[in-house]
Specification:
The complex is a heterodimer of chains A (527) and B (307). In chain A, helix 9 packs antiparallel against helix 11 and helix 15 runs antiparallel to helix 16. Chain A is an alpha+beta fold and 527 residues long. The longest helix of chain A is centred in the N-terminal third of the chain and has 27 residues. In chain A, 35% of the residues lie in helices and 20% in strands. Chain A has a six-stranded mixed sheet with strand order 12-16-11-15-13-14, with helices on both faces. Chain A has a four-stranded mixed sheet with strand order 1-10-9-8. Chain A is globular, with a radius of gyration of 27 Å. Chain B starts with a helix and ends in a 5-residue tail after the last helix. Classes of the chains: A alpha+beta (527), B mainly alpha (307). The interface between A and B is large, with 47 and 52 residues.
C-alpha cells in the first residue's frame, strides 16, 4: 500500500514540477510583436517605430519616460535650466554604467551628440538637434547644452537620436557595432541575438540602475497585422504591435481587457496641392470638399477602431484649445453649405469638378479613398479618379508636387509638442507637400518658438493652426489610435499618446510569480 | 564521343554564364530606371545627409561607373551594404536567409516528389475508381487554391484552434511544419497529376505489355519499368517546380515570418534596396541556371534520345 501511495505521490510531484517548469520556461521570455524588420539599431540613424521600440530597451537618454510616457530622469539624475531657456545643464547619475560595467562619462555622452549631428553619420532626424549650438562639460559628470533659442529640450533628449552611442565602438566596428557580439549600451536590456527578418532577443542588463523584472524579451518581426493577430491568438505573442482592421465591438467582446485602444499623437489628412489645378485657385472649392466629408461616418465605418474625427490638425491630447469652428451643426446644413460653395466656385452637376486622389497602395487607404470619393460624389457630384501608387513612387510624387492634386497625408509626432505638427507647413519645410506658403503663419510660429512663456506660445500656435485650417491646405480626417493586445499574464502596460512601452515597466502578473515562488499554497504531496 | 560530351557541357556552361550576366546587367539598369529612390521616405532626409548617403552608396557617380563598381565588388564576393538595412552586408543577409529558403523549399520539393509518386501511382492503379476520383478532386483543389488562402487557413486550424503547432516564426522544428506543408501542397497536387498521367501512359505502352508477357512480377514491373518512364516527365517538371517554389516562398515566408530569401526579393524591390535586390537576383539566378543545366544533363543521361 505504502509503495502505491509513494508512487502516486512521486507521480503527482513529477507532474507538478513539470507544469511549474513549463510555466517558468513559458515565462522566461516576453514575446513582443514589433511590426517590420528594424532598419537599423544605430540609435542615431533610426527613424521608424520598429527600431525606436527596441532602442528604448537598449539605451536610456539623459531624460527617460515612465510607463505612461511622462518624462522622468534617465541617464541624468537631475537638471537645471537657465531663465531664458537657452542653457540646460544635466548631471549624470552616479551609478550610470554601460552594459559592459564601465562607468559612463560626460565626455562619452558629448561625443555621442557630436556624432549624431555630424552629416557623415547620416542621421535622418538630425534636425531634431539643430537648435543645439554647442555641448560642453562645465564640471565632472555634468553636461551643458547651449541653444540657439529658448526651447524645452527635455522631450528631444528622450528620442533615439539623443541616446548615448559608444563612439569608440563605432570607430572600431563601423556599421557592425550594432551586432550582438559587439553590443554595448546603457539601457535596461542588452542585445543578445539578432536574426534579420525573424526576431531580436534581449537580455536584462545587470548594470542598469533599476533592473527590469522580465529577464528576456524577444521582439518578433511581424509585418502583417493579420498574421501577428493569429500569433497572439495561438499564444505565441504576449504583446502585439497593432490590431488588424475589424469591428471594434467584435474585438471588445472577444478580447475584453486584453485589447488596449488609446489616442495616439497622429493625424490622417488629405493634402491639396496648391501649386496647380482648379483646387489651388479656389478656396470655396476646397471648403466645399472639406464640408462634404462626413468624418463621423468615416471613423465609424471605415477605420472603426476608436479613432476620433478630426476637424483640425493638432490632436486633442496636445491640450491646445479647439479652434472656433465655423461649421454648421447638422449634416443637412453642412451639405447644403458645401453645395453652395461648390456652386460659388463655378461647378454644378452639368459641369462637375474632376480631380484625382492619390494614395499609396494599401487596403485601408483604398477604403478611405473610396469612401471620401463617394461622399464627394453624393453631396457635390464631384468625379474623383482614385490612383494608388507603390510607396516609393507615391512619396516621390508627393514630395515633388508636380503631378499630385489631392493626396493622402498623415503625421505622427516624435514629441508631445504642437510644433512637431505645425512646422510641417512652414514655407521652407521639406514636408510641406501642399506647397502652401503663408508669411504670417511662419511669423506666428517663429514668435511661438522665440517665446519662453508657455501660455503665449500656445496662443500663437493656436493662431497659426487656425490660419492653416482657414486656407484648407489640408483636409484633416481623423486622429489615429494606438491598438495593442496584451496577454493577461503581463501587467504594467499603460496606454500613452506617444505609444511608447519600454519592456522594463512590464512584469509578469503577480499570481504567476507567487504561484511559481510559493508552492506551499497547493501542497502536491497531500494524499 | 567523350570529348563531344565535354564540348557540349562546356557550351552549356558558357551559355549559362552569358544568361546570368545579361540577367544581372538588365536588372541593374531596370532597378535604377524605376521611379522612386532608396532614400525616399515619409520624411525626406536633409540635403547634407542625402549627399553623404549618395556618396556612401556611389549614387553620385554616373551609372556606368556604378555598374563597374558593382561588378568589381561581385568579383570579390562582396555585394556591399544593404540600403534599407545599413547595419548588414548583403552577403551576410543572404548567407543567413539562403539556408532557410533552401531547407523549406527542399523539404517541400521532396514531399511533392515522393508524395506525388505515391498518390499519382495509386490513382493510376485505381484508374476510374472511387479512390482515383477522390484523390484527383483533392489535387484539383490543391492546384486551384492559392497559397495565400491555404496558409492562413492552416494557421487558423492548426495553430489557433487546435494549438498543435506555432502560428509562425523560425528556430524550432515545429515552426517548420506549416510553411513546408503550405509550400508543398500546390506542387504535390501538380506532381501527383503528372505522375498519374505518366503512369497511365506507361501502363498502356508496348514495352510494358511485352514485360508483362515475359511474366515479370508486379513489383519488378512497377520498379523497373514504370518508375523510369514516370521519372522522366517528373524530372522535366522539377525545374519549373523549383522556380515556382522560389517565387512562392515570398508569400509563405511573409505569412509565417520566416527569415528567408523570398521576403528580401519583395521587400528589396519595394524599398529600392539596389544592393539587396542585385544580391537576391544573383543567388536565385545562379540557382535556377544551375538547376536547369543539371536537369538537362540528368535527363540526357537517363534518356539517350535527348542527347
Amino acid at each position: 500500500m505504502a509503495s502505491v501511495r509513494f508512487r502516486r505521490r512521486l507521480l503527482i510531484s513529477c507532474v507538478w514540477l513539470f507544469s511549474l517548469a513549463c510555466a517558468a520556461s513559458e515565462h522566461a521570455v516576453l514575446e513582443r510583436g514589433n511590426g517590420p524588420e528594424p532598419s537599423t539599431l544605430d540609435a542615431h540613424r533610426c527613424q521608424e517605430v520598429s527600431c525606436a521600440n527596441i532602442l528604448r530597451d537598449l539605451y536610456e537618454g539623459l531624460v527617460s519616460e515612465d510607463a505612461s510616457g511622462n518624462l522622468i530622469p534617465g541617464l541624468a539624475a537631475r537638471w537645471q535650466v537657465s531663465a531664458n531657456q537657452r542653457e540646460w545643464t544635466f548631471w549624470l547619475r552616479e551609478d550610470a554604467r554601460w552594459s559592459d560595467g564601465s562607468p559612463i562619462t560626460a565626455q562619452q555622452v558629448i561625443a555621442s551628440f557630436s556624432r549624431a549631428s555630424d552629416p557623415a553619420t547620416m542621421a535622418p532626424l538630425v534636425s531634431v538637434l539643430k537648435d543645439i549650438r554647442a555641448v560642453d562639460s562645465p564640471a565632472d559628470g555634468a553636461i551643458r547644452f547651449h541653444l540657439h533659442r529658448p526651447l524645452d529640450l527635455l522631450p528631444r533628449l528622450s528620442l533615439p537620436i539623443a541616446f548615448p552611442v559608444r563612439v569608440d565602438l563605432v570607430e572600431r566596428w563601423g556599421a557592425q557595432h550594432t551586432q550582438a557580439q559587439h553590443w554595448v549600451g546603457n539601457g535596461a536590456y542588452v542585445l543578445q541575438e539578432w536574426t534579420p527578418q525573424s526576431s531580436l532577443r534581449l537580455r536584462r542588463n545587470p548594470h542598469f540602475h533599476s533592473p527590469a523584472t522580465i529577464d528576456e524579451v524577444r521582439y518578433h518581426v511581424t509585418e502583417d497585422a493579420a498574421a501577428e493577430y493569429k500569433r497572439f491568438l495561438a499564444g505565441d505573442l504576449h504583446l502585439t504591435e497593432t490590431v488588424p482592421p475589424a469591428r471594434l465591438v467584435e474585438l471588445q467582446t472577444r478580447h475584453g481587457d486584453t485589447l488596449h485602444i488609446s489616442p495616439y499623437l497622429g493625424v490622417f489628412f488629405l493634402g491639396i496641392n496648391l501649386r496647380q489645378g482648379p483646387l489651388a485657385k479656389s478656396l470655396p472649392l476646397r471648403q466645399a470638399l472639406s464640408l462634404a466629408i462626413d468624418r463621423e461616418r468615416l471613423v465609424n465605418t471605415i477605420t472603426g477602431l476608436g479613432e476620433l474625427p478630426a476637424e483640425r490638425l493638432l490632436p486633442l491630447a496636445l491640450g491646445l484649445p479647439l479652434p472656433t469652428s465655423t461649421e454648421p451643426a447638422s449634416a443637412r446644413h453642412r451639405e447644403a453649405r458645401a453645395r453652395a460653395l461648390y456652386a460659388e466656385a463655378g461647378f454644378s452637376s452639368a459641369s462637375p469638378l474632376q480631380i484625382e486622389l492619390r494614395f499609396n497602395t494599401s487596403t485601408p487607404h483604398r477604403r478611405m479613398a473610396l469612401a471620401v470619393a463617394a461622399m464627394w460624389r453624393e453631396v457635390l457630384g464631384v468625379r474623383t479618379r482614385l490612383r494608388n501608387e507603390e510607396w516609393k513612387v507615391f512619396v516621390q510624387n508627393r514630395r515633388q508636387g508636380r503631378v499630385t492634386e489631392v493626396f493622402r497625408g498623415g503625421w505622427i509626432a516624435d514629441m508631445a509638442d504642437p510644433a512637431s505638427f505645425l512646422d510641417l507647413f512652414r514655407r521652407d519645410s521639406e514636408l510641406n507637400w501642399s506647397g502652401w506658403r503663408d508669411g504670417e503663419y511662419d511669423r506666428l510660429l517663429d514668435a511661438a518658438q522665440a517665446s519662453s512663456d508657455a501660455a503665449q506660445r500656445a496662443d500663437l500656435q493656436g493662431a497659426a493652426e487656425r490660419r492653416l485650417l482657414a486656407a484648407q491646405a489640408i483636409l484633416p480626417l481623423y486622429f489615429y489610435t494606438s491598438k495593442h493586445l496584451v496577454s493577461p499574464e503581463v501587467e504594467g502596460f499603460e496606454a500613452n499618446p506617444l505609444d511608447r512601452h519600454p519592456s522594463r515597466f512590464l512584469r509578469w502578473l503577480d499570481e504567476w510569480d507567487s504561484a511559481a515562488q510559493s508552492p506551499s499554497t497547493t501542497s502536491p504531496g497531500a494524499p | 564521343m567523350k570529348s563531344a560530351h565535354g564540348r557540349q557541357l562546356a557550351g552549356r556552361l558558357l551559355e549559362a554564364l552569358l544568361t546570368l550576366w545579361l540577367l544581372l546587367s538588365l536588372c541593374f539598369v531596370l532597378l535604377r530606371l524605376a521611379p522612386g529612390g532608396p532614400f525616399d521616405a515619409e520624411r525626406s532626409v536633409p540635403d547634407e545627409v542625402l549627399v553623404a548617403l549618395n556618396a556612401q552608396y556611389h549614387l553620385d557617380q554616373p551609372i556606368w561607373q556604378q555598374y563597374l563598381h558593382w561588378l568589381g565588388e561581385l568579383a570579390r564576393g562582396d555585394l556591399g551594404p544593404s540600403f534599407q538595412y545599413p547595419d548588414h552586408r548583403v552577403t551576410t543577409l543572404l548567407a543567413e536567409a539562403l539556408p532557410v529558403t533552401v531547407m523549406t523549399g527542399g523539404a517541400a520539393l521532396l514531399m511533392a516528389v515522393l508524395g506525388g509518386l505515391g498518390i499519382g501511382m495509386l490513382s493510376a492503379h485505381h484508374h476510374g475508381g472511387r479512390l482515383d476520383r477522390i484523390l484527383m478532386s483533392i489535387s484539383g483543389l490543391g492546384l486551384a487554391l492559392p497559397k495565400y488562402v491555404v496558409a492562413p487557413l492552416m494557421v487558423l486550424l492548426f495553430a489557433v484552434w487546435l494549438r498543435w503547432l506555432p502560428a509562425a516564426g523560425w528556430g524550432e522544428p515545429a515552426q517548420w511544419v506549416l510553411p513546408v506543408l503550405a509550400l508543398s501542397l500546390p506542387n504535390l497536387a501538380a506532381s501527383s497529376r503528372l505522375v498519374r498521367a505518366a503512369t497511365l501512359d506507361a501502363l498502356h505502352s508496348d514495352a510494358l505489355r511485352a514485360a508483362r508477357a515475359r511474366g515479370l512480377s508486379t513489383h519488378r514491373l512497377w520498379l523497373a519499368h514504370i518508375l523510369p518512364l514516370v521519372a522522366l516527365p517528373l524530372l522535366a517538371w522539377l525545374s519549373p517546380a523549383m522556380i515556382n517554389l522560389v517565387s512562392g516562398s515570398a508569400v509563405v515566408e511573409q505569412i509565417f515570418s520566416l527569415p528567408g530569401m523570398g521576403r528580401y526579393f519583395v521587400q528589396g524591390a519595394l524599398n529600392r534596396d539596389y544592393t539587396l535586390v542585385m544580391g537576391v537576383v544573383a543567388v536565385v539566378g545562379v540557382a535556377i541556371v544551375l538547376i536547369n543545366t543539371l536537369v538537362d544533363v540528368l535527363r540526357a543521361w537517363i534518356d539517350p534520345r535527348l542527347r
